[in-house]
Amino acid sequence: MPSNQFYYKRFLFALLFLLFLSNNGIAQEEKSISSAIYNFTHYIEWPAENTSGDFIIDVIGHKSVYDKLKEITAGRTVGKQNIVVRFLESVDKITQSHILFIGFWQSKDMAKVIEKVGNAHTLLISEKDGLIDSGSGINFVIRNTLIKFEIKRANIQKYGLTLSKDLEQMAYKAY
User: Fold this and answer.
1) C-alpha closest to that of 85 among 75, 40, 52
2) Is 79 left (phi over 0), alpha (psi -120 to 50) or beta?
3) Which member of 25, 80, 99, 120 has the greatest number of CB atoms within 10 A?
4) Is residue 27 part of a domain?
5) Residue 157's pLDDT is what?
6) Is residue 10 part of a domain?
7) Do 29 and 56 meet the contact criterion of CB atoms below 8 Å apart?
């Protein structure tokens, strides 16, 4: 008959394996979100006055998405603009950018985010259910264990941006 130590080792192994799977799933989620954010740049059109200088993508409240996005966009451009990814530690640090990704934990500050963005030509992207109704143009949601995104055209147009019908068709939901 196996000893208690045998069961303890099996339990510990199972726990470590589950943690590995969990972390791998989280890493995959961050990679998927970061890749999608970069790919959205091909389906959104910014006004002419926003097509010179660097193309700025700000990430607030989600350091691992920032890290992955920085890796994915290294050496890439949007049109002739070099992509610069910046990490913001708080809503108070928001300045003008082309894309602003609001991490899950910062979503409670959505009203303040919208106030700080003002009338700038900024695509707001979030990752919490319900934020599409709070002003986000694109919102990531998890459905049937898959990361999907929803789009609200009016929230994108509000900031003077033009949305491609192709992107709208790829969305899980479009409003």
Assistant:
1) 75
2) left
3) 99
4) no
5) 97
6) no
7) no
The whole-number pLDDT of residue 106 equals 85
Please classify residue 19 by burial: count the beta carbons closer than 10 Å to its beta carbon, then call 0-12 exposed, 13-18 middle and 19+ buried.
Answer: exposed
The helix/strand/coil state of 123 is strand
Question: How do the residues of the chain divide into helix, strand and coil, expressed in percent and rounded to 5?
Answer: 45, 25, 30
Per-residue model confidence as pLDDT tens digits over 88-121 = 999 999 999 999 999 988 888 999 999 999 999 9
Residue 86 lies in a domain: yes
At 5-20, the pLDDT tens digits run 544 444 434 433 333 4
CA distance 175 to 172: 10
Low-confidence ranges of the chain (pLDDT < 70): 1-27
Rounded CA-CA distance 88/92 in Å is 9
CB-side neighbour CA atoms (13 Å) of 77:
8
CA distance 168 to 36: 13
Residue 169's contacts (CB-CB under 8 Å, 6 or more residues apart) are: none
Residue with tokens 């919102």: 139
* Separation CA 30–CA 120 (nearest Å): 26
